């Protein structure tokens, strides 16, 4: 019961769940759409026996062969996969088939407004007949190249990001959610309509181009993520057919609109276990001109390529048969903070999207707490000089910091802060560059392109920066307490031993603190690389334990672990010694000098 109540408190603060519940409230039938979804210990009246009986009935009814689907993907033939499906999972009761799904109907009010404190957004959610064209629509929607919907919205500062999700699917019908991060929902909604009209004019060649992009996006996923997309996502299906008619039908389909706006909350509405400040959305009239849309394939536009003669130093790791992949990142221990990294990503978005249309791929992202740019270049003969040079020139330009979006989960907020709080060195100018794969000719060509960067390329390695120590408390709104402890690997110690130690700690930590002590709903101890430092990370979040108690729990676990690590026969004992502080210091509650802790407390 305590675990259910803790998860209830967590989901009450989870903005995506609250917003999805607001959209579902617009459905009038079936009644289950507005029924209880999440609940607290108070709602369950503390009757553990009744709860266990209800859960048992639910499992016996629904966790049966006729009400479940098994999805398999692998290198085997369809016949072999069928044989595997026939014997898996063993012992599952056949059960009764589910009754036919009742039709989904929308209520009288389908334009809703949700009062939020941050992250305004527009949800546009049409009910449509299932079609392979949804995946093609998604590819057009996620495009960020010049001429796309998102590029135009960002240029006018109407929206910052977009996502496409399924709210519901049955055999024939699907409920889509187009989600735009925006504080101007009326203008964005109008531009979506213009965009759907423009999509009806796309040529078969353009539709085929975006269809191939969707296949490339899918093929780049891990096997497990591919399987998820096949089961309830956007796996590519048949080639485009009837796309113009699909877009026309989408415009007139029954739809729910939800404007999440920073307005004064009105009377709350109880729905699905949430209390939401939900009201009718009264749209303001808008008459902004339509964006000028352009779809690919098309020319590179105003980008002009130079012919550099000099070459920058470049580390080349040849791998026969692999396409060239360029990695660029700031010098070690000098990664920009989150605000600067996000701003750099905004500048690079349209250029990386243009590279994708040219047959390549690029991503600016956080990797182990450090920002880096990866560029996979097209096959030989299709070198996009102008686009690559524009990307490289962009790296030398200054950027204005961008405020990170607020995080509603406390432990995620701490994780986002950790890399900045660990570092002590200043920012060294320049970029580290390495090329994996490709030929010697590719390496020479890329080295010449890198010479266009005005900052130093592959400068001398800075001395390792010391890791900042101590305990830092961060105040953040919410009712939970979270603790993050990072223990860096000592100089000269074995990284392999650290990783083996983390594998040993992970299940023990979870068993003791999550299962036995029921500390909270976030309990993790694992290996982590953060801001070019390897270490052991402990993460805890609890709705009712305070910071000092969480820290004591982590220390107690390490003390119990220390005798095991000091055994002479143990493979870790000499490679990564875990030195406990003297008993007197432990009683005073100080952190070992190598430990960096961050506490969030409401």
Automatic annotation (TrEMBL):
Keywords: Metal-binding. Residues 500-567 form the Coenzyme PQQ synthesis protein F-like C-terminal lobe domain. Residues 133-254 form the Coenzyme PQQ synthesis protein F N-terminal lobe domain. One of its GO terms (biological process) is proteolysis. InterPro entries: Metalloenz_LuxS/M16, Peptidase_M16, PQQ_synth_PqqF, PqqF-like_C_4, PqqF_N_2. It holds the Pfam family PQQ_syn_pqqF_N_2. NCBIfam families: PQQ_syn_pqqF. This is Pyrroloquinoline quinone biosynthesis protein F-like protein. It comes from Klebsiella pneumoniae. The lineage of its organism: Bacteria, Pseudomonadati, Pseudomonadota, Gammaproteobacteria, Enterobacterales.
């Amino acid at each position: 019961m305590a675990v259910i109540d803790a998860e209830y408190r967590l989901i009450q603060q989870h903005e995506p769940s609250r917003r999805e519940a607001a959209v579902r409230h617009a459905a009038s039938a079936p009644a289950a759409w507005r029924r209880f979804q999440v609940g607290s210990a108070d709602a369950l009246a503390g009757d553990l026996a009744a709860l266990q009986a209800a859960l048992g009935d639910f499992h016996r009814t629904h966790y049966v062969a006729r009400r479940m689907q098994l999805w398999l993907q692998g290198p085997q033939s369809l016949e072999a996969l069928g044989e595997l499906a026939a014997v898996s999972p063993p012992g599952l009761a056949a059960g009764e088939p589910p009754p036919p799904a009742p039709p989904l109907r929308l209520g009288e009010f389908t334009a809703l407004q949700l009062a939020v404190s941050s992250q305004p957004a527009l949800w546009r959610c049409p009910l449509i007949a299932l079609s392979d064209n949804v995946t093609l629509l998604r590819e057009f929607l996620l495009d960020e190249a010049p001429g796309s919907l998102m590029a135009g919205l960002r240029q006018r500062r109407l929206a910052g990001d977009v996502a496409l999700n399924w709210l519901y699917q049955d055999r024939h019908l699907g409920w889509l959610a187009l989600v735009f991060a925006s504080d101007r929902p009326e203008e964005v909604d109008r531009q979506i309509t213009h965009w759907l009209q423009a999509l009806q004019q796309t040529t078969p060649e353009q539709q085929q181009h975006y269809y191939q992009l969707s296949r490339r996006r899918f093929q780049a996923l891990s096997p497990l993520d591919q399987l998820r997309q096949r089961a309830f996502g956007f796996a590519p299906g048949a080639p485009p057919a009837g796309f113009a008619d699909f877009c026309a039908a989408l415009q007139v389909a029954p739809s729910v609109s939800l404007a999440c706006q920073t307005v004064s909350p009105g009377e709350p509405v109880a729905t699905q276990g949430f209390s939401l400040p939900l009201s009718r959305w009264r749209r303001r009239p808008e008459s902004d001109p339509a964006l000028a849309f352009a779809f690919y394939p098309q020319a590179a536009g105003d980008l002009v390529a130079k012919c550099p003669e000099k070459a920058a130093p470049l580390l080349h790791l040849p791998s026969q048969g692999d396409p060239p992949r360029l990695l660029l990142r700031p010098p070690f221990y000098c990664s920009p903070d989150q605000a600067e990294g996000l701003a750099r990503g905004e500048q690079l978005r349209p250029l990386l999207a243009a590279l994708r249309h040219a047959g390549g791929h690029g991503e600016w992202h956080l990797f182990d707490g450090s920002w880096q740019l990866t560029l996979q270049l097209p096959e030989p003969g299709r070198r996009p000089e102008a686009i690559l040079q524009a990307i490289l020139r962009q790296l030398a330009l200054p950027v204005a910091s961008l405020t990170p979006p607020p995080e509603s989960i406390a432990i995620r907020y701490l994780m986002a802060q950790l890399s900045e709080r660990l570092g002590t060195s200043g920012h060294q100018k320049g970029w580290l560059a390495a090329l994996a794969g490709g030929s010697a000719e590719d390496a020479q060509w890329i080295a010449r392109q890198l010479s266009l960067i005005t900052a130093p390329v592959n400068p001398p390695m800075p001395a390792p920066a010391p890791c900042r120590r101590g305990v830092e408390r961060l105040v953040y709104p919410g009712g939970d307490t979270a603790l993050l402890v990072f223990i860096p690997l000592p100089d000269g110690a074995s990284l392999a031993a650290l990783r083996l130690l983390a594998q040993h700690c992970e299940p023990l930590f979870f068993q003791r603190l999550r299962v036995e002590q029921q500390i909270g709903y976030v309990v993790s101890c694992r290996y982590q690389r953060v801001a070019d430092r390897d270490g052991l990370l402990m993460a805890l979040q609890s709705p009712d334990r305070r910071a000092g108690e969480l820290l004591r729990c982590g220390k107690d676990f390490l003390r119990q672990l220390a005798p095991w690590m000091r055994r002479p026969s143990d493979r870790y004992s000499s490679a990564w010694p875990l030195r406990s502080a003297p008993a007197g210091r432990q009683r005073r509650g100080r952190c070992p000098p190598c430990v960096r802790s961050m506490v969030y407390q409401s």
